[in-house]
Amino acid sequence: MAESRPPALSSRPEDRTGALLTIDLAALVENWRVLKRKAPGADMGAVVKAGAYGLGLEPVARALQAAGCATFYVAHLDEGVALRQVTGPAPRIVVMHGPNPGTERDFASLRLIPVLSTPAQVKAWGRFATASDVLMESLVQVDTGMNRLGLTAAEFTTLLNDPEGFAGLTPLALMSHLAVAETPSHPLNAAQLERFDGALARFRLKFADAKGSLVNSSGLFLGPAFHFQLARPGAALYGVNPTPATANPMIPVVRLQAKILQVRRVDAAAPVGYGATFQAPDGAKLATVSMGYADGLLRSWGVAGHGYIDELKVPVAGRVSMDLTTFDVSNVPDSALGPGAMIDIIGARQSVDDLARDSGTIGYEILTALGRRYHRRYLPAPATARK
């Protein structure tokens, strides 16, 4: 039986979707350069886990690699596998969750660098490296106050004191993670730095060339003492503010526009949407867009949310539903609501952080929740991006 093929479509992908997501790769690259200038002595990597924070692993990684980024960080092995296919053999790819049992050979075959966070991971990787005669870099993670991943102080000391504790390892770096870097005055930052300094000094008695890696995006703004040799920015690359108490030093990367499906005028005061939580007054004008929580627009946003049509602020009217959201556009002239009209959800007048604040969350969640039903348009980075 002949294989059936779907008919060719005459419409464009951007015409078939309910919302447009524009990703400015030139802005992304410039954000990486801004961060690189903050720590000129460090290897400035890029965290591209979760599909480059929802913006697309392949285009983001290619743009950053062309700009000169030589170290990438992902969370899972499969992310590392996918990234290696994009970047080729040249860059370092660090897998921050390390190897699950039985996956060590996959790490080695693709030159994926594991982060070892438990005694079991340290010993299993050491046994594999010794038995397979693999001389490959790894990172050892110590916990300095976050109580999430990493060797405890006691585990780290035990492994250091055991002549076979780190046998078989070729450590690229000792790593830890800051818990409150976005709050510079918090005393835990200084405490974690002190603990990490002490741990790294002890680690270098065994591995003299080991580098240090402590900072994420916000950590880069705590000063040179925190930078060490490997930096791991993530959210700031994508436009999230790494210094929430001050103006955002990063360039916006994302614009999200929702298409208006229908505009109606309410003849008499009436409720809008599920649960009838919003009462539209007599004569109100309502616009419904083809976008909802299935597309990453958080349901909680309906309480205080708003978008923009040109310079005009338009509040959400009622609850965000799965595929639809309604706005009160009573203040918008009919001429701005014709065919092709869209509402800016993220853009020049509402940042990712603004949307997050009104949703009761953080920019990280907004970005990583961005749906797969959008038409994604990438504005290219300059061909001369490498510097």
Task: Determine Rg (CA atoms, Å).
Answer: 24 Å
Separate helix tally:
11
Mean pLDDT: 94
Helical proportion, percent range: 25-40%
**N-to-C series of helices and strands:** HEHEEHHEHEHEHEHEHEEEEEEEEEEHHE
Low-confidence stretches: none
* CATH architecture annotation name of the largest domain: Alpha-Beta Barrel
Which overall shape is indicated by the principal axes computed on the Cα atoms? elongated
Main beta sheet: 7 strands, parallel
Provide the structure class: alpha/beta
Strand content bin: 15-25%
Distance between the termini: 55 Å
Instruction: Please indicate the count of domains.
Output: 2
CATH domain topology of the largest domain: TIM Barrel
CATH homology superfamily of the largest domain: Alanine racemase
CATH class of the largest domain: Alpha Beta
Count the E strands: 19
* Widest sheet: strand ordering: 3-4-5-6-7-8-9
Structure description:
- The protein has 387 residues and is α/β, with parallel strands linked by helices.
- The chain folds into 2 domains: 193 residues, TIM Barrel; 126 residues, Lyase, Ornithine Decarboxylase, Chain A, domain 1 (Beta Barrel), CATH 2.40.37.10.
- Helices cover 28% and strands 22% of the residues.
- It contains 11 helices and 19 strands.
- The strands form 5 sheets. It has a 7-stranded parallel sheet with strand order 3-4-5-6-7-8-9. Strands 1, 11, 14, 17, 18 and 19 form a 6-stranded mixed sheet that branches. The chain has a two-stranded parallel ribbon with strand order 2-10.
- The protein is elongated, with a radius of gyration of 24 Å.
